[in-house]
Give the backbone structure.
Amino acid sequence: MELSFSARNVLAGATILGLMGGVMGSFALLRRQSLLGDALAHAALPGVCLGYLITRSKSPAALLGGALIAGLVAALLILAIDRWSRIKQDSAIGIVLSVFFGIGIVLLTHIQKLPFGNQSGLDKFLFGQAATLLPRDVVVMSILGLAVLVVSGLFFKELKLLCFDTDFGASLGFPMRTLEILLTVLLVTVVVVGLQTVGVVLMVATLITPAAAARQWTDRLGLMVVLAALIGAGAGAAGALLSASIDRLPTGPVIVLCSSVVLVVSLTLAPNRGLLWSWLEGRRVARRIRRENLLKDLYAWGERHGGDWTQAVPWSFLMGTRGQTSRELVKTTRRLTSRRLARRPGEEQAAGLLLTAEGLSAAAAVVRKHRLWELYLTRRLELPSDHVHRDAEAMEHALDEHAVAQLEEALGFPRTDPHGQPIPRRNTAA
């Protein structure tokens, strides 16, 4: 597809904005200041209007210069309210956002009524007008973007401390208040750069959506910043190309929609955090719990018959123990037999189920966890022995062997649980 001169400017500007927004949005997201970008974007509107009223010019230098000053004033005001008053930061952000945006709307209305107030163009800052980007605008965005990336790279360790442990950073002698102001200035710069492309209303999505998508894929800040920058730049480029290929399709909203698609995919498919992963992990854990419960029921049957695990456990007993349906029990039984933890002495279902040697060891391990935890609850927390079974049922599936060994040592290597039942030894469960 051959891009026009204007489309190339939009593509370059949107990519640069997405790159900057992803980087700075990562810090804002981790500091739980997602709405700060929204407040700064709305606060920049009166600056745009004042820049026009003072210069009576619609030059980018006048309008964006006014936006930068207004954004900085709003940011410092938010910090001052949070520090010097009893109003919390989220409330301060809401106050500044509404007040400054209200002033901006009033000024827009006033400009429209002036003799020289052909305000065509000013209201485009609400939703952005990427098609008006000129080569000089792209150059300015490139310079500011490079400056933001260089500063954030030079102060990466300090900004990392600011995001995760401000008190620890202060104890090391870092000027955390100054760093907070620096981060806010960088955010204001990104917001001002993005006003012409995506506008006041959509600016917060440009900042936060790529960062939120990147956060689903990693727990490391450095990798998260890189991923957010790539997602933001990719969404910006994709939005610009789609807007250029389809008539009357606004660039700013399309950029936001592209980054939102990436966010939805990330929320669904990202390992360890994605909804699909969580669903699959939940099913896996549920299957393991049913498998371990069945092993424990088989072990209990043998205990009731004098420690004889050579007798097949009747199917009716297994169904009645936990109120399972025959279908659920069949599925769990298949998993035990496939792992060679149990076997059927006959072809008929009524023949029951029998623990193998390996299954007996695995069943004893589960019972050992259960009874040790019951003993811990009665000894250390002084709970009645008839009130600990349910808690032990939950914990027995969460304890690993290392934790069980520590628990056993702390209890003095006990032989019996609170009910007098023998606790299987470790070599039995091995």
